[in-house]
Amino acid sequence: MNIVAIVGSLRKDSYNRKIAEFMKNRYKEKMDIEILNIGNLPLFSEDIEDDPPTVVKEFKNQIKSSEGILFVTPEYNHSIPGALKNALDWCSRVDRVMKDKPTFIVGASNGNVGTARCQAHLRQVLNSGGISAIDLPGNQILIANVQDHFDKEGNFIDERTIKYLDRVVDNYIKWAEKLKS
Ligand code: FNR
Protein backbone atom coordinates (compact mmCIF):
# COMPACT_ATOMS: atom_id res chain seq x y z
CA MET A 1 0.00 0.00 0.00
CA ASN A 2 1.11 3.47 -0.82
CA ILE A 3 0.54 5.66 2.25
CA VAL A 4 1.28 9.31 2.97
CA ALA A 5 2.09 10.33 6.55
CA ILE A 6 1.36 13.77 7.95
CA VAL A 7 3.22 14.72 11.11
CA GLY A 8 1.54 17.42 13.20
CA SER A 9 4.76 18.72 14.78
CA LEU A 10 7.31 20.88 12.96
CA ARG A 11 9.88 20.45 15.73
CA LYS A 12 13.29 19.20 14.59
CA ASP A 13 13.48 16.51 17.29
CA SER A 14 9.76 15.73 17.28
CA TYR A 15 8.83 12.44 18.94
CA ASN A 16 5.89 12.14 16.56
CA ARG A 17 8.21 12.49 13.55
CA LYS A 18 10.47 9.81 15.06
CA ILE A 19 7.45 7.52 15.45
CA ALA A 20 6.46 8.15 11.81
CA GLU A 21 10.02 7.30 10.74
CA PHE A 22 9.99 4.21 12.95
CA MET A 23 6.74 3.07 11.31
CA LYS A 24 8.07 3.75 7.81
CA ASN A 25 10.99 1.46 8.55
CA ARG A 26 9.24 -1.26 10.59
CA TYR A 27 6.33 -1.74 8.17
CA LYS A 28 8.23 -1.30 4.91
CA GLU A 29 7.24 -4.78 3.68
CA LYS A 30 3.55 -3.95 4.19
CA MET A 31 3.28 -0.25 3.36
CA ASP A 32 5.29 2.30 1.48
CA ILE A 33 5.03 5.32 3.79
CA GLU A 34 6.00 8.72 2.43
CA ILE A 35 6.30 11.42 5.11
CA LEU A 36 4.99 14.73 3.76
CA ASN A 37 6.15 18.19 4.78
CA ILE A 38 3.43 20.53 6.04
CA GLY A 39 5.85 23.13 7.45
CA ASN A 40 6.30 24.83 4.08
CA LEU A 41 2.59 25.22 3.26
CA PRO A 42 1.40 28.85 3.27
CA LEU A 43 -1.54 29.76 5.45
CA PHE A 44 -4.77 28.83 3.72
CA SER A 45 -6.78 31.60 2.07
CA GLU A 46 -9.81 31.31 -0.19
CA ASP A 47 -8.25 34.06 -2.33
CA ILE A 48 -5.62 31.65 -3.64
CA GLU A 49 -7.36 28.27 -3.32
CA ASP A 50 -8.14 27.90 -7.05
CA ASP A 51 -4.55 28.45 -8.12
CA PRO A 52 -2.43 27.86 -5.02
CA PRO A 53 1.40 28.00 -4.83
CA THR A 54 3.25 25.00 -6.31
CA VAL A 55 4.09 23.63 -2.87
CA VAL A 56 0.36 23.27 -2.13
CA LYS A 57 -0.34 21.68 -5.52
CA GLU A 58 2.44 19.14 -4.94
CA PHE A 59 1.23 18.38 -1.42
CA LYS A 60 -2.34 17.83 -2.63
CA ASN A 61 -1.19 15.67 -5.54
CA GLN A 62 0.78 13.42 -3.19
CA ILE A 63 -2.36 12.91 -1.12
CA LYS A 64 -4.54 12.40 -4.19
CA SER A 65 -2.31 9.62 -5.51
CA SER A 66 -2.02 7.84 -2.15
CA GLU A 67 -4.10 4.87 -1.01
CA GLY A 68 -4.34 6.07 2.59
CA ILE A 69 -3.28 8.67 5.11
CA LEU A 70 -1.48 8.20 8.41
CA PHE A 71 -1.57 11.07 10.92
CA VAL A 72 1.09 11.14 13.63
CA THR A 73 0.51 14.14 15.80
CA PRO A 74 0.97 15.74 19.20
CA GLU A 75 -1.79 17.58 21.03
CA TYR A 76 -1.45 21.36 21.27
CA ASN A 77 -3.60 23.16 23.84
CA HIS A 78 -6.09 20.27 23.99
CA SER A 79 -6.55 20.25 20.22
CA ILE A 80 -4.94 19.88 16.77
CA PRO A 81 -1.66 21.72 16.12
CA GLY A 82 -2.30 24.80 13.94
CA ALA A 83 0.06 23.61 11.18
CA LEU A 84 -1.95 20.39 10.83
CA LYS A 85 -5.28 22.24 10.77
CA ASN A 86 -3.89 24.52 8.05
CA ALA A 87 -2.92 21.49 5.94
CA LEU A 88 -6.39 20.01 6.45
CA ASP A 89 -8.07 23.27 5.42
CA TRP A 90 -6.14 23.20 2.12
CA CYS A 91 -7.33 19.63 1.55
CA SER A 92 -10.96 20.49 2.27
CA ARG A 93 -11.43 22.70 -0.76
CA VAL A 94 -11.53 22.63 -4.60
CA ASP A 95 -10.46 19.03 -5.44
CA ARG A 96 -10.98 17.75 -1.86
CA VAL A 97 -8.13 15.28 -2.05
CA MET A 98 -8.84 13.47 1.23
CA LYS A 99 -12.38 12.47 0.27
CA ASP A 100 -12.99 8.74 0.95
CA LYS A 101 -9.34 8.11 1.88
CA PRO A 102 -8.84 5.55 4.65
CA THR A 103 -7.02 7.26 7.51
CA PHE A 104 -5.48 6.24 10.74
CA ILE A 105 -4.26 8.24 13.68
CA VAL A 106 -1.29 7.84 15.98
CA GLY A 107 -0.73 10.53 18.60
CA ALA A 108 2.02 11.08 21.17
CA SER A 109 2.28 13.78 23.77
CA ASN A 110 4.07 14.31 27.03
CA GLY A 111 0.82 14.65 28.99
CA ASN A 112 -1.18 11.88 30.67
CA VAL A 113 -3.97 11.61 28.10
CA GLY A 114 -1.77 10.91 25.09
CA THR A 115 -3.51 13.24 22.59
CA ALA A 116 -7.06 12.00 23.37
CA ARG A 117 -8.51 15.50 23.00
CA CYS A 118 -6.55 16.22 19.84
CA GLN A 119 -7.64 12.92 18.30
CA ALA A 120 -11.30 13.60 19.06
CA HIS A 121 -11.02 16.99 17.33
CA LEU A 122 -9.04 15.54 14.44
CA ARG A 123 -11.70 12.89 13.83
CA GLN A 124 -14.41 15.53 13.85
CA VAL A 125 -12.50 17.54 11.23
CA LEU A 126 -11.83 14.46 9.08
CA ASN A 127 -15.56 13.70 9.14
CA SER A 128 -16.52 17.22 8.01
CA GLY A 129 -18.24 17.55 4.64
CA GLY A 130 -15.26 19.28 3.04
CA ILE A 131 -12.80 16.57 3.96
CA SER A 132 -14.96 13.40 4.18
CA ALA A 133 -12.09 11.05 4.95
CA ILE A 134 -12.91 7.79 6.72
CA ASP A 135 -11.44 5.87 9.61
CA LEU A 136 -11.76 2.50 11.29
CA PRO A 137 -13.49 3.13 14.64
CA GLY A 138 -11.39 2.17 17.65
CA ASN A 139 -8.25 1.59 15.60
CA GLN A 140 -6.06 4.25 17.14
CA ILE A 141 -2.90 4.69 19.16
CA LEU A 142 -2.55 7.15 22.01
CA ILE A 143 0.91 7.43 23.52
CA ALA A 144 1.06 9.32 26.83
CA ASN A 145 4.29 10.45 28.51
CA VAL A 146 6.01 9.97 25.18
CA GLN A 147 9.47 10.88 26.50
CA ASP A 148 9.47 7.60 28.49
CA HIS A 149 9.12 5.51 25.31
CA PHE A 150 12.49 6.54 23.84
CA ASP A 151 16.07 5.74 24.80
CA LYS A 152 18.83 8.35 25.11
CA GLU A 153 19.77 7.95 21.45
CA GLY A 154 16.24 8.81 20.35
CA ASN A 155 15.12 5.25 19.48
CA PHE A 156 11.51 4.24 20.04
CA ILE A 157 11.91 1.29 22.41
CA ASP A 158 8.63 0.52 24.17
CA GLU A 159 7.98 -3.12 23.18
CA ARG A 160 4.42 -3.13 24.51
CA THR A 161 3.43 -0.11 22.43
CA ILE A 162 5.28 -1.49 19.41
CA LYS A 163 3.34 -4.79 19.63
CA TYR A 164 0.10 -2.83 19.84
CA LEU A 165 1.18 -0.72 16.87
CA ASP A 166 1.77 -3.95 14.90
CA ARG A 167 -1.84 -5.00 15.56
CA VAL A 168 -3.34 -1.64 14.69
CA VAL A 169 -1.32 -1.42 11.47
CA ASP A 170 -2.49 -4.90 10.44
CA ASN A 171 -6.12 -3.98 11.18
CA TYR A 172 -5.72 -0.82 9.14
CA ILE A 173 -4.23 -2.62 6.12
CA LYS A 174 -6.93 -5.32 6.16
CA TRP A 175 -9.67 -2.71 6.35
CA ALA A 176 -8.17 -0.44 3.67
CA GLU A 177 -7.66 -3.41 1.30
CA LYS A 178 -11.29 -4.47 1.82
CA LEU A 179 -12.46 -0.96 0.97
CA LYS A 180 -10.64 -1.13 -2.35
CA SER A 181 -12.36 -4.34 -3.47
C1 FNR B 1 2.09 21.20 24.14
N1 FNR B 1 2.08 19.98 24.80
C2 FNR B 1 0.87 19.43 25.21
N2 FNR B 1 0.80 18.14 25.66
C3 FNR B 1 -0.39 17.59 25.99
O1 FNR B 1 -0.43 16.41 26.37
N3 FNR B 1 -1.55 18.31 25.89
C4 FNR B 1 -1.56 19.60 25.45
O2 FNR B 1 -2.61 20.20 25.35
C5 FNR B 1 -0.30 20.19 25.09
N4 FNR B 1 -0.26 21.47 24.62
C6 FNR B 1 0.89 21.96 24.06
C7 FNR B 1 0.88 23.17 23.36
C8 FNR B 1 2.02 23.61 22.71
C9 FNR B 1 1.99 24.89 21.90
C10 FNR B 1 3.21 22.85 22.78
C11 FNR B 1 4.46 23.31 22.06
C12 FNR B 1 3.25 21.67 23.49
C13 FNR B 1 3.33 19.24 25.00
C14 FNR B 1 3.59 18.27 23.88
O3 FNR B 1 2.91 17.06 24.16
C15 FNR B 1 5.08 17.96 23.75
O4 FNR B 1 5.78 19.16 23.50
C16 FNR B 1 5.35 16.94 22.64
O5 FNR B 1 6.67 16.50 22.76
C17 FNR B 1 5.14 17.56 21.28
O6 FNR B 1 5.28 16.58 20.30
P1 FNR B 1 6.60 16.46 19.40
O7 FNR B 1 6.99 17.84 18.92
O8 FNR B 1 7.67 15.88 20.28
O9 FNR B 1 6.22 15.55 18.29
From TrEMBL:
Residues 1-146 form the NADPH-dependent FMN reductase-like domain. InterPro entries: Flavoprotein-like_sf (IPR029039), FMN_Rdtase-like_dom (IPR005025), NAD(P)H-dep_reductase (IPR050712). Pfam families: FMN_red. One of its GO terms (molecular function) is FMN binding. GO terms for cellular component: cytosol. PANTHER family: CHROMATE REDUCTASE, NAD(P)H-DEPENDENT FMN REDUCTASE LOT6. This is NAD(P)H-dependent oxidoreductase. The lineage of its organism: Bacteria, Bacillati, Bacillota, Tissierellia, Tissierellales.
